[in-house]
Amino acid sequence: MTMTRLSTPLSALILVTLVCMGITRLGHAQRPNVVVIMSDDQGGGDYGFLGNDVIRTPELDAMFAQSGLLSKFYVSPVCAPTRASLMTGRYNYRTRCIDTYIGRAMMDTREITIAEFLRDAGYRTGIYGKWHLGDNYPLRPMDQGFQDCLVHRGGGIGQPSDPIGAEGKYTNPTLMKNGVETPMQGYCTDIYFDAAMQFIESSVSGKQNFFTYIATNAPHGPFHDVPEDLYQEYLKVDFKPILINQNIRPERLKAESDKLARIAAMITNIDENVGRLLKKLDSLGVRENTIVMYLNDNGPNTMRYVGNMRGMKSHVDDGGIRSPLIVHWPAQIAARKTNDTLCAHIDVLPTILDACDVALPADHKLDGRSFLPLLTETDATWPPRQVVLQSHRGNVPQKFHHFSLHADPWKLVHPSGFGKETFSGEPNLQLYHLGKDPRQQNDVAAQHPAVFQRLKKSYEDWFADVSSTRPDNYAPPRILIGTEHEPRSVLTRQDWRHVTGRPWARDSSGFWLLEAQDAGDYDIELIFAGSHPAGKATVTAGNVRQEIEITANKRRGHFAKLTLPAGQLQLSVDVVFGNKTQGPHQVILTRK
Hey, what domains does the chain have and what are their CATH numbers? Predict the structure, then answer.
């Protein structure tokens, strides 16, 4: 980083003083530490400092009062795409991560993550909570730059990727600690923050900079297991003021209020942990020069308060894709330094690298840009830009399907639906002036045809660009089996390629895309969910096939022994129960 040249005697004195204080133009001579905290499904209105008087966030409110805030910060409408963009500084469509499950939440391992950049620059790197970009080698966080990992599998606890015997356990969960299934004691969010603080303390003791990524799975569902004391408190709260539907029937209001009490309990628990973390940074004497960022990954998981916007999780309306971004860095960012410039998740990586003085390779392409000057300078220049957010179900992105393009103050959007694999016919594009109409009530496409056509062409150019990042750009990544890095591979429905039935339903079927570096012998164990009749399973991997008998109501212990060839292969398990064919719950491949 360069320093402005000073020539007068007084300026020279100022320069000497600044150097003695260990300060440069852009910050401390010592590199900052970095903590990124991202909640799951919290929503952009679930904060006291943004006007929510029902859900309590006193620690985040206090953090906001001492921090910078980006108030026009965008994320993707669902979680895995946001995480891919956050980790890489690139649109998720460049990374092969295009959905949230059935093999399309896995990120191409050629992507370089923020953890890899910082690790190579001498930082210790740790992740705690939710990764959601691949559960097997070489897709795991420990393969992607994180040196200390304590995470759950899949997109959340309570999904088919849960370790057997620990299904749905937010309290006392079994987590993956550096690749090993490890039973834990306590509530999941508390566990993540405890482990993160231990990592930070050991880093400070070793006089090493740290990058700590805390990604909670709260307040994502299921909602059966929440902090009990907070839940009991919130059962007494009237949630109607933050409900979008004010005409809800009494019986429905009771059920919705119970769900919101559980969600609010999880949010306040996160908030309490943020307070604990900041106190730990104080006690270690590193808070002044530690960057702490806080954001949520998409809109809220119910139709509830989102400020002056509309929408929820999975929507491309602003309520589904906006998050506040708090940036706490006492050494460099003034309290209540608020900026409403258009920024997004793709900007987090370049901003952190900028703050940490870590250079990118000259040929490495980012979509994001550093927003650091917006929070550290008085009159920072920010060239006009656009941000595009698109996510929908399916194996390949479809042009115009469920996207929004933002070019301040305009928003071009086609809310065709996240749950749909495709849409048919001409896209019903809508244009909004967000400066005048943040709730997106008045489509002004007819009044501004030139703006409409310009933004439509910008979107088409963007889609063509991200879709041509690499040959076969949207091919799903493969799981590499039989290596010393992961000789035992647990394959789940999170990452299988779905064929029939609902993707996670017990009677559905699918297959896994694998790759073996060399031929080898494997034990293949089939695992079933719950009770089932006797049946027969056929295990197929390329040209190799074996049939095995399935004992009724036996979850584990059904084995096949196969010699698998080198190269790419497709593994499928067809289980016949009576006249129905389905897949197993999980499969474990162990190289002998």
Answer: 1-30 (no CATH), 31-376 (3.40.720.10), 387-467 (3.30.1120.10), 479-591 (2.60.120.260)
